[in-house]
Amino acid sequence: MCDKIHITSADIAEMEKGYRRNFINTLHGYKSANLIGTIDKEGNHNLAIFNSVIHIGAKPPYIGFIMRPAFVPRNTYENIMETGYYTINSIQKGMEPQAHQSSAKYDKGVSEFDEIGLTAEFGTVHTAPYVKESVVKIGLQFKEELHIKLNDTKLIIGEVVEVMVPSDMVLKDGTLQLHKADTLAVLGLETYAEVNPIKRFEYARPDEETEGLAF
Amino acid sequence: MCDKIHITSADIAEMEKGYRRNFINTLHGYKSANLIGTIDKEGNHNLAIFNSVIHIGAKPPYIGFIMRPAFVPRNTYENIMETGYYTINSIQKGMEPQAHQSSAKYDKGVSEFDEIGLTAEFGTVHTAPYVKESVVKIGLQFKEELHIKLNDTKLIIGEVVEVMVPSDMVLKDGTLQLHKADTLAVLGLETYAEVNPIKRFEYARPDEETEGLAF
User: Fold this and answer.
1) Which of A103, A176, A211, B35 is most exposed, with the fewest beta carbons within 10 Å of its own?
2) pLDDT of A144-156, one tens digit each?
3) Strand (E) positions, B61-183?
């Protein structure tokens, strides 16, 4: 690596809009890539890609995602508020063209499943559609919405109420081997990446070297 | 992939604690892996790994992370509240043993930099320590704290006020080529993974195929 750039607030403020969007979005590292599926009261399906899904807690099992005001799929938010349920679905290698296309601004009532060529599938706990082609399918019940006043975004939190996953992907200790199904990550808004585990450690304690675990 | 498992809330509630922690933490996919550096009023340095750093907005440039109540580095939170500044530093391949060891519960006042063998480095905007060995170094000013009542966690949001990054890592459009420096991602709490971009798309529009971009 060659020379370092030193950037301050004034430099960031002067960046061209697209440059700043890419720079700030890629700065902190790789993100999960997921498709969020919803249904409205009339039964219309909606599907949209999100790269902001995060772990909130394991007991009870809570997962969150950030909903940006200018971001495309506001239908996702309206549908969650209408029905109380939504699904989070993984993106496998080969699905990235369809997954990315789901970020286009389709009209309300148009099913992204049909437009982009993915298949709706259903569980037994709620009526929100899962993505058949996804290997990990998570069903959530809406629990809490936090408003980030700074830039008018929302953190939407749901409780995991249903999971469908291949049995041979789950290690004995509960860890999902996502690489077995070529699950992708995303960088910024549009770069899809494959991921390969290199090392797994035990719980760390001061003055102790941790052992490696299977992954 | 073989048989699918179908899991509902009752199954999750009955999972053994460690199994549930691994299962829920790995469910939604890969996460960014970062070291957060802080300093207290007395000048003591603190460093801790976080896998919950997320993008909040590009203009102004906001980045957030989740602080869990039972999670180790409460010093991080106290120091941010005392001084108003902190750093987010990337984890390169080869740094994963030190990075993971930073999650051990060291006493307050003990510098994780010294204990785990990483080097503190400083910018010009604030006094919080960066990690010299990290390739991407982000300096933040604390802006907003949101309390997630559901499970007593916090979303901490800061504004990016300083960035140090190698010049040959930044594409003309602002995108950081994190793979050039073997930047790692994390799965769950303890599995470190290398990441390789496979495809980059343009902004998606309905009824249009997007072109591939350089990555």
Assistant:
1) A211
2) 999 999 999 999 9
3) 62-67, 85-90, 120-121, 130-131, 137-148, 153-166
